[in-house]
Every structure is written in C-alpha cells, then in structure tokens.
Amino acid sequence: MIIGLTGEIGNGKSTVTDILKEYGYQAFICDDIANDIMMNNTKVYEDIIQLFGNEIIREDLALDKRKISDIVYKDEEMLIKLNKIIHPAVIDFIKNNLKPDNNYVIESAILFDTDLILLCDKIIYVYTNYEERLKRLSESRNLSEEKIKEILSNQMESEDFKEKSDYVIDNSFSPSDTKEQLKKILDQENNLCDWIR
Questions:
Q1: Which of 21, 54, 99, 104 has the largest CB neighbor count within 10 A?
Q2: Are 73 and 115 found together in one domain?
C-alpha cells in the first residue's frame, strides 16, 4: 500500500512518518528529495539558476534556499515556475524507486498539487490547531511570527485538505494519541484488505 501523507507546515507530518516507518513503511519525504535534486541534478540546478538569476548562488556554489524561499513566497508566479522544474524530477525519483509488494509513505505538503496523488492508495491529512503550529514553527525553525503567517497564507486551507483526504489525524496532542489514531487507520485498512481478499 502507498499512503500519501499531507498537511500544512508545522502540522507534524514527520511525526506520523516516523511512526509509519516503525510499522515497516518505507518513506519518501518530498522536501528532502527536492533538496537533493536541486543540488545533484544538473539540469534542475541550471534551470533554477536560469529562472532566478545568479544572485541565488552561494559562495560554495550551492543554491541559496532562503533567498529562493523569500522570492517565491512573495511571487506566486515564480513559485509555479519553480514547481514545474522540481516536481517532475521528484515524481520520477519516487516512481523509479517503488518496488512491488512494499508499503510506502509519500510525505508532501503539496501532495494535492502534484501528480504524486495518482500514486497513492490512501491519503492521510495531519492536522494541528493553529496556535500549536505557530508555537512549533517558532521553536523548531527559528522563524518570526510574521514569516510563519506569510508561509501559511500560501498553503491550502485545512477544510480543503480534510475534504480531499481519506483520513484525518489530529496531531495537536501527545505522540501516543497520534500513534493510536494512526493504528486505528491501519487496522481499518488491513481489515478491509482481508475482507476484499
């Protein structure tokens, strides 16, 4: 089974991914894959420089992701162009590394905006209340409240995520509570598969 795991920044997707890994799922974390591709895929690297210009190149020749982030969060057209460069490469990487009969989780905040959705058997949306998200992001990413709100404003509304997903996990509470919710989902899916067989 391939689970698509989605949700806005700060909702704790990585927490749920880690639990799924405990259950034997192999994880594709799209942010990590994209970062790797931006540095190691020559065509993607060159296309991004052509899009943004040389000012996004650091002294060590790596791409300055903070500068890129500042640009795309203020310019939706540039974000769309960047995604058109990166998304196909991420999808190709995942497709090329899928193996039959294995269980996978694909973690992406923008799952519904890409063709990755077509690979997924079930979609789980990880939700956390707004105040908790602000707290987590300010602590873990050292971002100002203004920057966090700017980032959040570019993401899909919670109700849209919920409507499009098969399951919702509320990650506002303890890790054990989150694990229990996930276990119920997996048990339900396993029972359904047994019934179909």
A1: 104
A2: no
